[in-house]
Design brief:
About 45% of the residues lie in helices and about 15% in strands. It folds into 2 domains: about 150 residues, Aspartate Aminotransferase, domain 1 (Alpha-Beta Complex), CATH 3.90.1150; about 220 residues, Aspartate Aminotransferase, domain 2 (3-Layer(aba) Sandwich), CATH 3.40.640.10. The termini are far apart. α5 runs parallel beside α6. Strands 2-9-8-7-6-3-4-5 form an 8-stranded mixed beta sheet, sandwiched between helices. β10 and β11 form a beta hairpin. It is α/β, with parallel strands linked by helices and about 400 residues long. The radius of gyration is 21 Å and the shape is globular.
């Protein structure tokens, strides 16, 4: 039977899927404690409030909410995005915003309208695997810039840009997750944010700021995680965020903020991709914002995730063998583990699954598949007593593997 694979385009034949998605089915098996996915706590989903709001919207204007909507977004969706950004010190006008089907679509469209094959995209090293997949499939040249506890390394960023300039490689944009980064959980210092904006001006490139976790700061101090976009005087920063982490990922609703002439391009691209984002979910987002519910809900989410992070960090301290280190996030969903140099996290994965615990290998988040002795673990999905048990299993796995490796 003809599989017709010879008809695939170059992109179609070379598409790369997500390492996390490949691991997902295995990690979700019964008895396996999974720290692999960045899934929000299902117990935190505001099902009752969503049901009441949706029922109200459908009763009032079902003909409107069940119809096609504007490709740029409904006024309610845009107002909901403005409301969330106002909390983050970002002033926005409706003409600067387009609603998207989650932040992933924002990354996809950004890549579509800015990148030709061979163009350079700079990323934090490591970075979000979903963005890496999109960038690779666009045939971009991806260069990872290492991070430290304060965020992206400014000295290496400058050197990378200088090297690209000397080699006549055009850097189109820098992709950043400055707040509680996926996968490391690190937060870029405010001083680094100012430096990055200055460097972007000096070397003339754009910044794609992905900020899905920014409101989930454990101490509630939003000034400490003030977005680059709030300090952007030149419209160099294209800002994207999402309702996935603060309402639910299932509503598939995010947004982009940038200059109107760039939003125009986003709008044209979106028309070709999915016509419009869900009008009913945009109405829902505004209803939850306007009622004041979402602000109080976010406060509750901060408490939930802080408690789980504290449990995971305490368990890591209690159970992990010497030679293992980890980040200490101040918000978000993730912790990054670095193992002894001789331990390969991919080779250890089957041993972990035999111990009934799962994680994501760190090399999946690398622009060049580096970080073989690293892994990402998430505290967002499992209950606290399960987290404790899972960290114990993971520590026993690492000890077992260290003893085998000698």
């Amino acid at each position: 039977m003809n599989a017709y694979t010879d008809l695939f385009s170059f992109v179609g034949a070379n598409l790369q899927g997500s390492e996390i998605r490949r691991l997902f089915a295995t990690s979700m098996q019964p008895d396996i404690i999974s720290f692999a996915g960045g899934l929000p706590d299902p117990g935190s989903f505001p099902a009752q409030e969503v049901a009441e709001a949706v029922n109200k919207l459908l009763q009032q204007r079902g003909d409107l909410y069940l119809q096609y909507g504007p490709s740029s977004g409904t006024r309610e969706g845009i107002d909901a995005a403005i409301h969330r950004m106002k909390n983050r010190s970002i002033h926005a006008e409706p003409a600067q915003i387009i609603m998207t089907s989650g932040s992933q679509q924002a990354i996809d469209i950004m890549t579509m309208i800015f990148i030709d094959p061979g163009d350079v995209i700079l990323v934090e090293e490591p970075t979000f695997v979903g963005a890496l997949g999109t960038f690779r499939n666009s045939q971009a040249r991806i260069i990872g810039v290492p991070m430290d506890e304060q965020g992206i390394d400014i000295t290496i960023l400058k050197q990378t840009l200088q090297n690209a300039k000397q080699e006549n490689h055009r850097v189109k944009f820098l992709y950043l997750i400055p707040n509680f980064q996926n996968p490391t959980g690190l937060t870029m210092s405010q001083e680094r944010r100012v430096s990055v904006l200055q460097i972007a001006k000096e070397y003339d490139f754009m910044i794609l700021e992905d900020d899905p976790y920014g409101e989930l700061v454990f101490n509630g101090d939003l000034n400490s995680v003030r977005p680059l976009k709030a300090q952007d005087a030149e419209d160099r920063v294209i800002y994207t965020s999402s309702f996935s982490k603060i309402i639910s990922p299932g509503i598939r609703l995010g947004w982009v903020l940038t200059a109107p002439h760039i939003i125009e391009r986003f709008d044209m691209a979106k028309q070709m991709l999915d016509v419009c984002s869900n009008p009913l979910m945009q109405g829902l987002a505004w209803e939850l914002c306007n009622s004041g519910f979402l602000d109080s809900h976010v406060t509750q989410l901060r408490r939930i995730y802080k408690s789980r992070a504290d449990v995971m960090l305490a368990a890591l301290q209690r159970y992990m063998p010497e030679g293992v280190s980890w980040t200490k996030p101040a918000g978000g969903f993730f912790i990054w583990l670095t193992l002894p140099r001789q331990i390969n996290a991919l080779e250890m994965l089957n041993t972990a699954l035999a111990h009934n615990v799962a994680y994501v290998i760190g090399s999946a988040f690398s622009a060049n598949s580096a970080g073989e002795n690293t892994m990402r673990i998430s505290f967002c999905h499992e209950q606290e007593e399960i987290i404790e048990k899972g960290v114990y299993r993971l520590a026993e796995t690492i000890k077992d593997f260290i003893s085998r490796e000698g």
